[in-house]
Amino acid sequence: AQKITQTQPGMFVQEKEAVTLDCTYDTSDPSYGLFWYKQPSSGEMIFLIYQGSYDQQNATEGRYSLNFQKARKSANLVISASQLGDSAMYFCAMRERASSGSARQLTFGSGTQLTVLP
Amino acid sequence: ETGVTQTPRHLVMGMTNKKSLKCEQHLGHNAMYWYKQSAKKPLELMFVYNFKEQTENNSVPSRFSPECPNSSHLFLHLHTLQPEDSALYLCASSQVGSPLGSEAFFGQGTRLTVV
């Protein structure tokens, strides 16, 4: 089964509007972290926001906020006041607890291509 | 320089060529990763190095050979590749033992085309 599911291959939003990118995840580990990355056409993966499984409040970073619904296992990214520069691929990722001393790797979803329209 | 640097940014190689991708991180991290990103697919983890030791090899064909001479450098040696190996290859680093929320930092990737 897929650990991270992003059901929207592409999304369009009007400049200055808000947009929600969906992400659901699957894990049996009670301790995990959820991440969102942005990948512009240049290729670099840019970290946007993080939500820990035990965090009581939804994470926010500037125009980015994470709508974390633990019972539904969803971690949707909300971008407010969209800008043309927000056009990019957006990836949801999860890191589960690793055994002591071993590197923790991220599991990524398939991504959502966001296009901001002028 | 800061962050994670990958060279070259673009590479075109024939199926009989041998080439290497280089990754360097200036963040003091102790874990490094190679990911493959093919069109319309999620990122696929290829290799993990933890304190210079390879801790994971996700069933990657032997035509891809990683090398981690120290905790700051990571190479991916390529030989006799196939056209389906054409993809964006991303290097990342992170700090083992840090909180779960420590993000991985990525390089800009090497866009590889096998002809």
- What is the alpha-carbon Rg of chain A in Å? 14 Å
Any idea what the shape of chain B is?
globular
Question: How far apart are the termini of chain B?
Answer: 33 Å
- Total strands of chain B: the figure is 11
| Spatial extent as radius of gyration of chain B | 14 Å
Number of helices of chain A: 0
Major sheet of chain A:
6 strands, mixed
What's a concise summary of this model?
The complex is a heterodimer of chains A (118) and B (115). With 118 residues, chain A is an all-beta fold. In chain A, 0% of the residues lie in helices and 49% in strands.
Secondary-structure map with pairings?
The complex is a heterodimer of chains A (118) and B (115).
Chain A: E1 4-5, E2 10-14, E3 19-21, E4 24-25, E5 32-39, E6 46-52, E7 60-61, E8 64-69, E9 74-79, E10 88-96, E11 107-108, E12 112-117
Parallel strand pairs in A: 2-12
Antiparallel strand pairs in A: 1-4, 3-9, 5-6, 5-10, 7-8, 8-9, 10-11, 10-12
Chain B: E1 4-7, E2 10-13, E3 18-25, E4 31-37, E5 44-50, E6 53-57, E7 64-70, E8 73-79, E9 87-94, E10 105-106, E11 110-114
Parallel strand pairs in B: 2-11
Antiparallel strand pairs in B: 1-3, 3-8, 4-5, 4-9, 5-6, 7-8, 9-10, 9-11
What would you say this structure looks like, in words?
The complex is a heterodimer of chains A (118) and B (115). With 118 residues, chain A is mainly β. Chain A is built from no helices and twelve strands. In chain A, the strands form three sheets. In chain A, strands 2, 5, 6, 10, 11 and 12 form a six-stranded mixed β-sheet that branches. A four-stranded antiparallel β-sheet of chain A has the order 3-9-8-7, with no helix packed on it. In chain A, strand 8 and strand 9 (74-79) form a beta hairpin. Chain A is globular, with a radius of gyration of 14 Å. The relative contact order of chain B is 0.33. The radius of gyration of chain B is 14 Å and the shape is globular. In chain B, strands 2, 4, 5, 6, 9, 10 and 11 form a seven-stranded mixed β-sheet that branches. Chain B has a four-stranded antiparallel β-sheet with strand order 1-3-8-7, with no helix packed on it. The interface between A and B is medium-sized, with 28 and 28 residues.
